[in-house]
Amino acid sequence: MDGSLSDLLIGAFALMLVFEGLMPFVNPKLWRRIFEMATRLSDGQIRFLGLGSMVAGILLLALWR
Question: Which helix (H) or strand (E) segment is 37 a member of?
Fold first, then answer.
């Protein structure tokens, strides 16, 4: 892998971790409630959320580029 590409991937991963940590840090009670609700979703609903997240990410990357 090219050095700049690996740097970009590491930076993107680090930024993802920062965003993932915001909700439990800022409002742990709400995060816990949302997490508990998510555990009650069916596999199909979770897959749909994952697909939606991936599509949104791809669209954002396409617009960014």
Answer: helix 28-39
pTM, rounded to two decimals: 0.69
pLDDT digits (tens, 9 = 90+) for 2-51: 678 888 889 989 999 999 999 999 999 999 999 999 999 999 999 999 99
- Token match 């409630």: residue? 33
Q: How far apart are CA 65 and CA 23, in angstroms?
A: 28
Token code pair at residue 13: 């991963």
Cβ–Cβ under 8 Å, residues 46 and 38: yes
Structural domain boundaries enclosing 20: 3-64
Number of domains in the chain: 1
